[in-house]
């Protein structure tokens, strides 16, 4: 089911805006990763969508229906908390069955139907036979899957996940995320996932939504964000960056370091920051000392001057000037006060 | 809980352990041993005689019965009080919080006399109750009232910290799963309080079985009806029937021990709930 957020805002008790005019449309079947620095408002937004917190303005529509007046229990969305929030006094099976058992009698499946649904979910979560265990007896990754199974038991069309893999080790995270994406496709879900992990966001999501200071900064497919990052955070989030301070004077960006070449740009005069991926930097002959570093992942790495690291694909490494170098920054992005002012 | 050996980590642990055990022996074990030995000092016969005294059996029934009822009523009342203090934060909850321990600090005779006055035929509570035909003071119900009064601090203090530390996400998770308020209360909030509730019940019950001072002022103390076992100990001693007095004490001790052990065993069944 589609999710439509229209001009959502929320104030905290002190009156400060923690969500500021957030509008976002998510199509049925889409997988969106919600990213942003700590304190950006990701959890706050997810809680408003789920109905756990009320917005101060704007509307939440699910499948075209305005949900704003409905409490969380009536919205029927799946929600997975960062710390799992499993019921410690209930067995794994009873945790999973919870959403079915609290249904009104007329809608509640029979005992045997609930039991077979629980078994089905345990299989789906690759936890067969663990139904009698208690949450305290499971590993972190297993608890995570139980929390997911519990949220999915009532077949919610929309799944909201708040950093669900935060506490897992990198290997487990990697396998669980591909598995989650498969699950999303198999069940035809619409999913919003909050994450801090760039790899995770890129690998799992159709689209990223980037937040900062309570605002939605940019939303789009990863390659769109890579091509036109709206803020320096987006640029930083998506990969390694080299950051060069400088200023624009008369249509030319003049970098501070002497070993970087000026770049012709089309923006007004003033201070600016250029950000560029290490592999987008071209090396030309120039004044700076070039120190070779270890080769890694198909890139020969060099330190230029005493700060900047450049990645050069191994197959063109023989074209690197050996006597001395300068940086050609023509493929970088220019930012002023953290906001994009131009792609060069 | 954590069961690693502490001996290797704490300097002076063995010495501390040894002196603790010695003190524990002097303070707890010796008097208990004396209590166990004393009834048999004059041979088995006087003890058996004291044991099957119908007045003693009646007093034990009154004592354990009222202690059970009082602890059972204290449990929901204490839960409500704990809720008001740590969760609802009702106006004046800080004062309420401080007042909870007052029954422990008050000399029990003062509580007894106060309660007897309040619930007496012309007291604030007693008069309207008498109007309804209910007699509390100087009747078995008075014993329960007095025992409830001394037991409730234990219930509040056992339950409040658990309630205060219960993660609010659990209730939110229940809501997102479609649970109504009452379903959340009964299925998510209350069950984890069960172990603490058992502890609370055990403490309130144990305190109530041994309570003497406050009860005798309000109970009426009629043999076979509203006479508690601790009072019978005093009466036997005044009659110079030391074996009889000690026999009552021993029965109280053993019965309480059995009940507390049972509660402990029940509580251990919930160990796998901890730390989810
Ligand atoms: N209950 C609250 N009362 C007041 N302010 C709050 C409350 N919850 C969150 N905030 C504020 O709202 C802002 C956004 O918080 P939120 O938890 O949504 O951030 P987040 O993006 O999820 O961060 P993180 O990545 O660290 O989880 C923060 O500045 C935070 O201080
Ligand atoms: Mg958060």
TrEMBL record, chain A:
MF annotations from Gene Ontology: ATP binding; ATP hydrolysis activity
Superkingdom of this protein's organism: Bacteria
Domain ABC transporter, chain residue ranges per copy: 3-238
Keyword Nucleotide-binding part of the UniProt annotation: yes
Organism from which the protein derives: Tanticharoenia sakaeratensis NBRC 103193
PROSITE patterns (alphabetical): ABC_TRANSPORTER_1, ABC_TRANSPORTER_2
GO biological process: quaternary ammonium group transport
InterPro entries associated with the record: AAA+_ATPase, ABC_SmlMolc_Importer, ABC_transporter-like_ATP-bd, ABC_transporter-like_CS, P-loop_NTPase
Pfam family, one: ABC_tran
Protein name: Sulfate transporter ATP-binding protein CysA
Keywords, in A-Z order: ATP-binding, Nucleotide-binding, Transport
UniProtKB/TrEMBL annotation, chain B:
Official protein name in the record: Sulfate transport system permease protein CysT
GO cellular component, one term: plasma membrane
GO terms for MF: ABC-type sulfate transporter activity
InterPro entries, per the entry: CysT_permease, MetI-like, MetI-like_sf, Sulph_transpt2
Localization: Cell membrane
Organism: Tanticharoenia sakaeratensis NBRC 103193
CDD domains: TM_PBP2
Keywords, ordered alphabetically: Membrane, Sulfate transport, Transmembrane, Transmembrane helix, Transport
Record-linked PANTHER family: SULFATE TRANSPORT SYSTEM PERMEASE PROTEIN (PTHR30406), SULFATE TRANSPORT SYSTEM PERMEASE PROTEIN CYST (PTHR30406:SF8)
Recorded superkingdom: Bacteria
Chain ranges of the ABC transmembrane type-1 domain: 60-263
Role of this protein: Part of the ABC transporter complex (TC 3.A.1.6.1) involved in sulfate/thiosulfate import.
Subunit description: The complex is composed of two ATP-binding proteins (CysA), two transmembrane proteins (CysT and CysW) and a solute-binding protein (CysP).
Transmembrane segments: 12-36, 56-86, 98-120, 132-156, 185-206, 242-266
Membrane topology designation: Multi-pass membrane protein
């Amino acid at each position: 089911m589609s999710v439509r957020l229209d001009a959502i805002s929320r104030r905290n008790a002190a009156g400060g805006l923690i969500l500021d005019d957030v509008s976002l449309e998510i199509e049925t079947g889409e997988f969106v990763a919600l990213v942003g620095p700590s304190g950006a408002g990701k959890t706050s937004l997810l809680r408003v969508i789920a109905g756990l917190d009320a917005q101060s303005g704007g509307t939440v529509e699910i499948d075209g229906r305005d949900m704003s007046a409905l409490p969380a229990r009536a919205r029927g969305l799946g929600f997975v908390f960062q710390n799992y929030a499993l019921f410690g006094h209930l067995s794994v099976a009873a945790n999973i069955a919870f959403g079915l058992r609290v249904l009104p009698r007329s809608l509640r499946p029979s005992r045997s139907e609930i039991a077979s649904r629980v078994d089905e979910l345990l299989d789906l979560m690759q936890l067969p036979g663990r139904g009698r265990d208690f949450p305290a007896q499971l590993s972190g990754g297993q608890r995570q899957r139980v929390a997911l199974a519990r949220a999915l038991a009532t077949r919610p069309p929309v799944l909201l996940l708040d950093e669900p893999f935060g506490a897992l080790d990198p290997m487990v995270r990697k396998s669980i995320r591909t598995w989650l994406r498969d699950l999303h496709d198999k069940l035809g879900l619409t999913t919003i996932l909050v994450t801090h992990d760039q790899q995770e966001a890129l690998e799992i999501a159709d689209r990223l939504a980037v937040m900062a200071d309570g605002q939605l900064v940019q939303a789009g497919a990863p390659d769109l964000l890579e091509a036109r990052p709206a803020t320096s955070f987006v640029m930083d989030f998506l990969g390694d960056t080299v950051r060069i301070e400088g200023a624009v004077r008369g249509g030319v960006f003049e970098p501070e370091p002497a070993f970087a070449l000026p770049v012709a740009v089309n923006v007004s005069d003033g201070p600016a920051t250029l950000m560029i991926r290490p592999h987008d930097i071209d090396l030309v002959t120039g004044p700076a000392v070039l120190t070779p570093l270890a080769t890694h992942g198909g890139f020969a790495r060099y330190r230029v001057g005493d700060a900047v690291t450049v990645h050069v694909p191994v197959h063109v490494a023989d074209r690197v000037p050996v006597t001395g170098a300068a940086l050609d920054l023509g493929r970088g992005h220019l930012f002023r006060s953290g906001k994009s002012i131009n792609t060069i | 809980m954590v069961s690693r050996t502490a001996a290797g980590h704490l300097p002076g642990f063995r010495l501390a352990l040894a002196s603790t055990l010695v003190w524990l022996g002097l303070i707890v074990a010796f008097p208990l041993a004396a209590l166990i030995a004393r009834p048999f000092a004059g041979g088995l016969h006087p003890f058996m005689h004291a044991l099957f005294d119908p007045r003693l059996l009646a007093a034990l029934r009154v004592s354990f019965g009222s202690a059970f009822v009082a602890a059972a009523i204290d449990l929901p009342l204490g839960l409500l009080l704990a809720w008001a203090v740590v969760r609802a934060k009702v106006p004046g909850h800080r004062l309420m919080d401080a007042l909870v321990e007052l029954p422990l600090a008050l000399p029990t005779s003062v509580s007894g006399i106060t309660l007897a006055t309040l619930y007496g035929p012309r007291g604030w509570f007693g008069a309207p109750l008498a109007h309804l035909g209910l007699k509390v003071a100087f009747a078995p119900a008075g014993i329960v009232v007095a025992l409830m009064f001394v037991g409730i601090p234990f219930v509040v203090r056992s339950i409040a910290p658990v309630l205060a530390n219960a993660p609010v996400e659990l209730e939110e998770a229940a809501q997102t799963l479609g649970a109504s308020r009452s379903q959340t209360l009964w299925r998510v909030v209350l069950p984890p309080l069960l172990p603490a509730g058992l502890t609370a019940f055990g403490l309130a019950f144990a305190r109530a079985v041994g309570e003497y001072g406050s009860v005798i002022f309000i109970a009426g103390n009629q043999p076979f009806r509203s006479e508690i076992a601790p009072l019978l100990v005093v009466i036997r001693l005044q009659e110079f029937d030391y074996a009889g007095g000690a026999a009552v004490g021993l029965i109280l001790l053993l019965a309480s021990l059995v009940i507390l052990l049972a509660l402990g065993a029940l509580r251990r069944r919930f160990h796998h709930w901890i730390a989810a």
